[in-house]
Amino acid sequence: MRIARLLGVILTMLTTALLSAPTAGAQPPFRLPDHITDNAGALSTSGYNEVAAAIDKLYNDRHIRLWVVYVDNFSGLSALNWAQQTIRASDLGDYDALLAVSITGRAYAFLVPNDVRGVTETQVDDLRHNRIEPELRDGDWSGAAVAAANGLDAQRDSLGRVLMLALLGAVVVALVIFVLVMRYRRRRRRAAALAAARRVDPTDPTALAAVPLEALDDLSRALVVEVDNAVRTSSNELTVAIDEFGEERTAPFTAAVNNAKAALSQAFTVRQQLDDQTPETPAQRRELLTRVVVSAGRADRELDSQAEAFEQLRDLVINAPSRLATLTQQVVELTARIGPAEQRLAELHREFDPAALTSVSGNIATAKERLAFADGNIGSARALAEHAVSGQQTRLVDAVRATESALGQTRALLDAVDSAADDIRHAIDALSSVGADIQAGIARANQQLQHTQSAHHSELAAARDAATSAVEAARGTGSADPLGAFARLSKADAELNRILATLAKEQADAERLQRSLEQALFTAETRVRGVSEYIDTRRGGIGPEARTRLAEAQRHLQAARDTKTASPAEAIAHANAASAMAANAQSLANADVQAAQRAYAGRGGSDTGAVLGGIILGDLLSGGMRGGFGGWTPASFGGSSGSSGGGFMGGGGRF
Length: 655
What we know:
single chain, mainly alpha, Diaminopimelate Epimerase, Chain A, domain 1, 19 helices, 71% helix
């Protein structure tokens, strides 16, 4: 009998509830909890994010708050009436616009306050009819909200736009004048700063720390050029001195030149690092520039330390007659090489394309000019040596040194012609091996481009294309210009191999990241599924907090799935967040169930498990559990009534 009475009460209550219930999915006007309310399940995760981004941009740009709400239907009210009541219930103000959409009722309302500056009723109606309604007709719920936000954001006061353009034009003119003046002043300040920097000891890093960064950069550029010229000049003079005095007596000078070359080489290496495409922080740039200046300064100081001793060794004034005789003999020897070199160059032109001989084609003519210059200086030096006059020793030294330099260059020019054939032969022999290597690199690049995508995809494609072009060019011109073909192939091969090496490392890193992603997804999916099943089988005793955490966990899990291909790192972050939220939901659900079990334990009866599982409703319909375990209470709708300021533009309708 007791069971029968209970069933009768339940049936009566259910019948009453069904008869008095509104249409399924009906949603009366209510107080909006957030800028996006989706009670109809209209938005996907990505759609929600797009709407949120558009709403945030609208507020950041114009401080207009757009509220968007999706419900199944408007509970028998017109779209406009439902929206107006919701605005009052939500206390929306003079800069709050509302887009309300009934999904199953296929009705909507879009209302914008009259007080929003720069937006007219015509613009609102145009936005409603031509941008929002088409999206709604197509079922693009998120697109309609994004169109509303972007449409409000796009409206601008035309007068303000004109004033802004005029102001912008004036600013541009003033800016051009300002830039020209500042550029002139900057050049002057930069020159003064460089002059001041030159007075600082270049080998003292502590002193260089006080030099401004820009001046330090200018100083480093100037020093590497100046010191490189000094090293080259010293190296040439050392070669002459070794021939004259022997290696033993010139050993200190050789050591000085070698040390200077090593220091200068280090300076150039660091300078190259500064000039590459990889940016440095100001602190890194200062450290590198200081290294360049110190290295160049030490190289220059190394040469200066032996300058006096070197001059004493080569006292050209005292030894001028014998030195000039030696130089005359060298002129004779080099002149004798001109004819054979001309013949050899003619043979090379018959054998190879002119492009292969660009670097040596003008060597004979230049060598003749250097010999004529040397011969003229020898004559001048002889006259100065025979009629030594006080104050003319410097001219004598300059004439001898100019002769030595000219003869050294003549010798280098003729040597280059003699070695050109060997260089070209070497390039021909090496073309096949470098060609095979670059072909293998092209094949690996094609495989990478077909099966993988990376940030270096375009860079690899460009390097592959450059390598292919180099191969094709070598086939067409390799026999005529083997040196040029070899240079192009070597450069393309080196660049292609560099990018392939980078991709190989990135692929290994990506594989490790993918394994981490799979582990994070597995953990998240397991935890979310477990707590979802736990809540499902105990839903009669679990409140909203645990369910909210589960919903957030499911959102993060879906985001992880959506981004796992495009951004594995972002997907891992979402998966880890899903795991944490699921763990929190499980903890809250456990507490709710324990509280419910304690509450039912004092009531007795054998249906506790069925009530907790949501199989039968028990006291939940009568409100006996209201305010009980887990802080669970039925949802409430509405709120304090309010009104906005001066009315709204827009309206409602069907779609």
